[in-house]
Amino acid sequence: MVRLLLVCAVTGALAFGTQTQSSLTPDQELAEKVRDLMKSYAKHKGKPEADWQTIYLNLSPDRRAVFDAAVRHLFFQPVSNGVPIGKRLIDYVEAVHGIWGVRLNEGDGKKQFRLSIVWNPLVIKYLQVVHDTGGNISRSDLGHVLMPGADETPSSQPVKVDVRGPGGVVTYRESSTAQRLQASFLTENPSIGEVDVDYDKTPCLYPGSCHCQPSNSDVGSFASNNTDHHLKLHNTATARFSPLAPAWSDTAYHCKGKYQ
Amino acid sequence: VTRLTLATVVIASVGLAAARVEPQAPATAFQTADLTLAEASNDFVALWLIKRQAAAAVETYATSAISDERLFPASSFEPEAYRKRFTDESLPRQSTPESFKRALVTHLEGFYEPDAKIPQELTQLVAPFSPGIARVDRPGLWSLISHTAPRTLPGNLALAYPVGQWRDMAWTGTPTVGFHRLFEEMVRARSRSGQAVVFQARRVSDYYPGQLIFLLWVNEGGSPNPWKLWGAELPPVS
Q1: Chain B residue with minimal CA distance to A139?
Q2: Subunit contact A209:B204, Cβ cutoff 8 A
Q3: Cis geometry, peptide bond prior to residue B224 (ω within 30 degrees of 0)
Q4: Which of these, A87, A140, A112, A144, lies nearest to A218 by C-alpha position?
Q5: Measured between beta carbons, which residues in chain A are less than 8 angstroms from residue B237?
Q6: Quick one: average pLDDT of B116-133?
Q7: What is d(CA A118, CA A95) in angstroms, rounded to the nearest whole number?
Q8: pLDDT by residue (tens digit) across A172-183?
Q9: For B20, which DSSP code?
Q10: Mind listing the pLDDT tens digit for each residue in B148-167?
Q11: pTM for this one?
Q12: Which of A47, A207, A225, B131 could disulfide-pair with A42, CB 3.0 to 4.6 Å?
């Protein structure tokens, strides 16, 4: 039933493909972006673009959650000199080449909840303008780019990941206390990059710090006492869209050692 | 009992000595200012993150010059409501210094974790930090602050650098809109100088580097401590 509904939604999005952006509802525009980016993902994986719906529906619940949450958040509105800029970050995403969302004791990939992105290289100039004008995105450090690769590896198998570190990465962070988007690029090739969404603000100060875990980027994670509920944060921050419903079947408490 | 008490005093003194800032003689006015800045910063972090007395830290060190809500910590507002402050100039902004201090306490207490294992000494929480260490261990950070000519504060626990504009502290990712839009104008209008003090906490995770601790001080004059705290952030590490 869920799959049927998703297919209907996706098919419905196709029907709106000929409309202009301004005439679309937020959900319709979102559905278009999901379609276009899943097509780009299919192409990158050497599969027919026409199969994008099947590929999307066959993503594991965890990977689909990461994809959905990141794409929805990329619609947020950057501001320059107190005025919203016409374009949004989503307008600079040309393709998705990696969807990393493996959870809970599932090999090396459990550490990753991100999208490997192909950016329009103009995104750097765009973000720098927001930064320079005191906007709601700023240049930061500790950037990372998770290179496209073995994101499709079954969760039972170890995953070799290629993360490029801060030395060769430029990164920008959204100025927000909760649900903070991070956009990163390789210095040597700004079109190659990553999108990461962090949910917790609690830092890595003390040994055993509860939130100092990869779960910080997992939209499905929450504390065992039902606080720090990432999905609630996400749906509040992206309220212009219909709420994202959990597709995953297991819970993913942080602070319980599952991400150690 | 006397021996025990003496031993306790000795142990406590040894612990404090590690974090104490010893003056170098003869001291210039600049060195004296840095010494005071280091002492204030060390004490503030110890009160905030070790003794968990955020209210006392704020009462002792926070400025009384801020009443504009745009300079209140963003975390004292609902995140979604706060996003509007980047675009909506009509939102109410005038408040009181007392409200600012309450908001700052709430902000600082928001970083506490109930079950965390808290170090007993400042030197157990933070590692020595300096421009040389930042250049090697935190090249990303260094590339963003090197234009300010950072220096090591007395005591070698933190680096410091002048802050005159948003660009100088943007790396912290602070969402407080007043730092983005107002800070430069305010310090210039008052002929004040801002100083950033940055500590690096000891690494506690396999995944992430040591947490940085950012304090923003402004020299407001007065004696014995002219430095007043305008902001404190724990920048993202992931």
Answers
A1: B171
A2: yes
A3: yes
A4: A112
A5: 142, 203-204, 212
A6: 94
A7: 5
A8: 999 888 789 999
A9: -
A10: 999 999 999 999 999 999 99
A11: 0.86
A12: A47
